[in-house]
Amino acid sequence: MHLSYAQTPRRSLHQMDLQDIFQFVAPKVRDAAIKTAAQLSRLGIRHALAGGLAVGAHGYIRTTMDVDFLVGEEAFEQHGGFVTFKTGVPIEVEGIRIDYLSPVGLGTHVERALNEPSISKGLAVVPIEVLIYMKLVAKRRRDQIDVVELIRVGADIKQVKEYLKAYAPDLLPLFEELVNEALSE
Asked: Which terminus of the chain has fewer CB atoms gathered within 10 Å of its CB, N or C?
């Protein structure tokens, strides 16, 4: 018997697994994530998946056509007043765009997530509370929908609230609004 994704039983968020999302995203996206992570490791750059693939790894699987990584400052080089990527950092792999987020504007607490990331299928993934924080900071509706769906699939609301209280109390009202949206449907 073959189940559609909608019929697949939900798993606990604490059992993060990229295997689930790798079944539903385009193989080129999966391969771009794996190849980019390997290249970043070779370059000695701390990294963790963020964006749509991380959302999927944490339980809400959706399509994505790019790969997002949170990277350490070692991914960048200073050239006078210019900042560029370190030589060898891929920006595209076989037609798939690779986007990078720097923790500099997000706070030192986000940088710490690069030091002890969760690992799934050999890839580092941004922890759920950091991912939700990053989605809230972005303030785009697509990101807010991701937060709503992560709550629906079992994100630990208390854990996220504690994280936000510690690092971004100004985002608590938005998070509460999204929690209410998630729980009301």
From this structure: N
